[in-house]
Amino acid sequence: DSFDYRTFFVKVGLKSKSNQVHQVGQVFHFLDKDLNGFIEEEELIIFLKDFSASARDLTDAETEALLAAGDSDGDNKMGLDGETALIKM
């Protein structure tokens, strides 16, 4: 499991909450494939492929870690609101 979401977000320019909220929202909506307002496990598995067609799927452990980091209410999905951990990363 070589994927580290914190390093990834820094590399794509999402470094701080204060000036990056708009970009986080854009990334969120890009990843929310079914447009239901949440990012679920199935959407996270192909997370890296959304940024590069030659990228690999996330492993189960990587997917679980990313989901846990962005799941602010324990429902096993990430929502986009002022309290979501995805914005706090």
From TrEMBL:
PROSITE patterns attached here?
A: EF_HAND_2
GO cellular-component term (any)? cytoplasm
Where is Ca(2+) bound in this sequence?
32, 34, 38, 43, 71, 73, 75, 77
Q: Name one Pfam family in it.
A: EF-hand_7
Q: Which GO terms describe its molecular function?
A: calcium ion binding
Q: Which residues form the EF-hand domain?
A: 19-54
Q: Which keywords, in A-to-Z order, does the entry hold?
A: Calcium, Metal-binding, Muscle protein
Concerning its family, UniProt says: Belongs to the parvalbumin family.
PANTHER family (UniProt xref): PARVALBUMIN, PARVALBUMIN ALPHA
Role of this protein: In muscle, parvalbumin is thought to be involved in relaxation after contraction. It binds two calcium ions.
Name the record gives this protein: Parvalbumin
